[in-house]
Amino acid sequence: MHPALQGLLTIVIGVGGCVGYFYASNLVLDKVIFPAKGPNIGRNINRANMVRPWLFLFPAMFALGLYLAYPVFETLRLSVTDRSLGGAFVGFDNYTQMFGEAKFWEAVRNNFMWLLIVPAMSTAFGLLAAQLTDRIGWGSIAKSLIFMPMAISFVGAAVIWKLVYDARPVDQEQIGVLNAIYLGLGGDEPQQWLTIPFWNNFFLMIVLIWIQTGFAMVILSAALRGIPEETIEAAIIDGANPFQVFFKIKVPQIMGTIVVVWTTITLVVLKIFDIVFAMTNGQWETQVLANYMYDKLFRANDWGVGSASAIVIMVLVTPILVWNVRNARKEMR
Amino acid sequence: MDNMAGTKSGLTWAVHISVALLVALWLFPTVGLFVSSFRTADQIATSGWWKAMFAAEQSLTLRTAGADEAVREGDLYVLEGNLFDIDGRETLNISVWGTSARDVTAYTPGDTAELRRGGTVTVQANGDYRLETAEEPSGRGQRVFVTAKVPPEFTLGNYDTVLGKNVALNVVIYGIASLIFGLVLKYVFRGSERGIGSYIPLFGGLALFILLAFAFGLSDGRAEGAQTSDNMGRAFFSTLTVTIPATIIPILIAAFAAYALAWMDFPGRALLIALVVALLVVPLQLALIPLLKLHLAIGIGKGYLGVWLAHTGFGLPLAVYLLRNYMVGLPRDIIENAKVDGATDFQIFVRIVLPLSFPALASFAIFQFLWTWNDLLVAKVFLIDATGDTTVMTNQIVELLGTRGGNWEILATAAFVSIAVPLLVFFMMQKYLVRGMLAGSVK
Q: Which of A 290-329 lie inside 8 A of B, CB atoms?
């Protein structure tokens, strides 16, 4: 069958199935199991209302459980078994093997650099852009242009920036902007930016900063607008200059939002895969955890070590997970 | 106070300039890709894209006609003609020229150069040349290195190569027609801007586009020398096939759950909400192997069904979270009044909550669309099998990066084809995207 037709059919089955399920299950509940008539009418209505939420929740909870909750435990189990031994329990062998690999520590080191730099730079640029664009007439156009990279895939961004970093032999005209500028400023020969160990990490990070700044800007700009005017007016009357107003009045008041933006970008960074995969594939000392994991799972076919490295990512995410859940519960009270 | 006013206007200028700089910096890389996709391989290789707008001094290597066209004049062999005729190029105005690669600026037009292998050549500014040798010439024509101002030139040729002949042109024409049709509809239905009426222009335009595409076709056949056209065109439709069901299905499932979490009372509700928030941040890397094993075990295998299910599962936490947060904010009165009037939960949900939640549904739909369209990892794991029949554009581009890393005209065009759709959605639906982001970032 043609895939497009298959897709159309899936939409019809999916949507029809959902609607049918919800409608039919409600009908069965109200008319057959607990009919709202007869001697037990009151009790039946109450019982039906106790069951109904679970009818509404069941498909979503089932999918969430199967596609996100179950894999966490299954991955944990896989990380202490060995595929080549028929799935036998091997304790921490996979972890020991992983900790013994230089490439793993390279990935950890790089991931920490990403964690330190990308959220900080994106938030800083986002805050700057938010503050500046809020003050001018064409700010909304400027905003939507800075925001635009959010719509571009990591792979597309990788191609875009590979063109920026492109290097040609010294006697030819440079077509990569960075090398053209570098030579224009007196550099002696064009550089293969992505192959210079250590520094190439930063050239990869720029891509993500470029994408995430728009996100930070949008959220922070909304927060800046929410600041009560009086606090700013009072500061100006007291003789604060624009910089003092910004750093001493505005920033402290949106600190909560800044933290949210920071953690959200941190989550993106922890899972970063496509950019590294498409631009260097972890060569020249640019490995990161998610790409290391992909290598282990699908190139080396080593599910044990692959799962172990996935668990490492999970462990790094956990503090944010706990913090988010606590905040959400606080808010609900 | 005068002083203060002065500093203020100075500061305003500084703000304008810094914003302009920031925007330019952010736009520059994308514009580079866009411009490059309209240049020929030659142009891309010989000059930076930022020079594409201007007539550029470009060095060209041209040849005189071959020896067999030499004419005898007295005791000389003479070759006459125009350098630009040979490749069928446009005539340019030569500023300097040379006969050796080492010194391409040796002569000005009208000069006569001594050739190393004997004889002389004279080149005029318009490319006319006269080559005289005493002995009978042999072999190919003499190479002449000319420097001339080449006017800016853009081509749709790359798009023909990547997508098929005239596809880009047809899309643009149909697109403009649909846009005009949409605007007309908007004018006709300007009275009913609220409710369903406001979507008539959008869907009318889309319908016309699809109709035109089916009626007149998109491609006028394969472009010459195209090796990528089939792949990229097919990948485009594969991506579309992955994306649309993966966007629509989770919305409905999530909406029911979100309603239950927002407006129904039952024990364990708070716990379930906490669970959703927790699953919001679980890295999908953890899910790859267990789910692939599951899919293989129950016979789904690798394919569209698997990738639809996976995207549905991974998109659900955000969908439930976004929609619940929105639904909780709906006015309590409306829902309670409906309950008093005897409406069941199912009716309240379908008749009241779902229509009122449209902005949140749209926000999530855009998120999920962008995410599934731009995804590489999920498609690689759950969709793309060894046969390579099913592929998505992101994967195709990564493969092009590997096999045709130097062919920037192909790469830039392929990448731009893949980012054009998200960009279009982004600019059309930005309002909903921003709204969703504000609601989705955990406060």
A: 290, 293-294, 297-298, 303, 306-307, 310-311, 313-314, 317, 320-321, 324-325, 327-329
pLDDT at residue B6, rounded to an integer: 44
CA-nearest residue to A274 within chain B is: B376
Q: pLDDT at residue B5 above 60?
A: no
Average pLDDT over residues B205-221: 75
What sign has the CA pseudo-torsion B89, B91, B96, B99?
Answer: positive
How many CA atoms are closer than 13 Å to the CA of A210, on its beta-carbon side? 26
Instruction: Say what the pLDDT of residue B443 is.
Output: 43
The whole-angstrom separation of Cα B33 and Cα B21 is 19
Please tell me if residue B207 touches chain A, with a CB cutoff of 8 Å. Answer: no
* Among candidates B44, B277, B390 on the partner chain, residue whose Cβ is nearest the Cβ of A175: B44
How does pLDDT run across B303-362, given as a tens digit for each residue?
A: 788 888 889 888 898 889 888 888 888 888 888 888 888 887 788 888 888 888 888 888
Q: State how far residue B69 is from chain A, nearest Cα, in angstroms.
A: 34
Give the model's pLDDT for residue A200: 86
State residue B198's pLDDT score: 66
A267 touching chain B per CB within 8 A: yes
Q: Which amino acid, one-letter code, is at B95? A: S
Amino acid A121: pLDDT: 92
d(CA B302, CA A282) in angstroms, rounded, equals: 26
**Tokens standing for B429?**
């639906």
Q: How far is CA B127 from CA B58, B103, B110, in A?
A: 15, 18, 10
Instruction: Output the pTM of the full model.
Output: 0.82
Average pLDDT over residues B96-102: 78
Mean pLDDT of B360-387: 86
B14 is written with which tokens? 């500084």
Task: Count other C-beta atoms under 10 Å from residue A243's C-beta.
Answer: 8
Cα A196 to Cα A192, A200, A203, A240, distances in angstroms: 7, 5, 10, 46
A127 interface with B at CB cutoff 8 Å: no
Q: What is the Rg, in whole angstroms, of the alpha carbon atoms belonging to chain B?
A: 32
Q: What whole-number distance in Å separates Cα of residue A13 and Cα of residue B308?
A: 13
Q: Which residues of chain A have pLDDT under 70?
A: 1-4, 7, 36, 85-87, 333
The mean of the pLDDT values for chain B is 79
Q: Which residue of A has its CA nearest to B406?
A: A166
- Which helix (H) or strand (E) element contains residue B239? helix B229-263
Rounded-to-integer distance, Cα B90 and Cα B84, Å: 7
What pLDDT sits at residue B120? Answer: 82
A294-299 long-range CB contacts below 8 Å, 24 or more apart? A294/B377, A297/B288, A297/B289, A298/B380, A298/B381
User: A6: distance to nearest CA of chain B, Å?
Assistant: 8
Is B387's Cβ below 8 Å from some Cβ in A?
no
Mutate to test the interface with A, among B57, B286, B443 (most CBs of A within 10 A): B286
Contact A218 B434 (CB under 8 A): yes
pLDDT tier, B2 (very low <50, low <70, confident <90, very high otherwise): very low
Q: How far apart are CA A213 and CA A262, in angstroms?
A: 11
Q: Which residues pair with B65 in a beta bridge?
A: none
Give the phi and the psi of residue B250 in degrees, each rounded to 5: -60, -30
Residues of A in contact with B23 (CB under 8 A): 142, 145-146
Strand partners, B73: B76
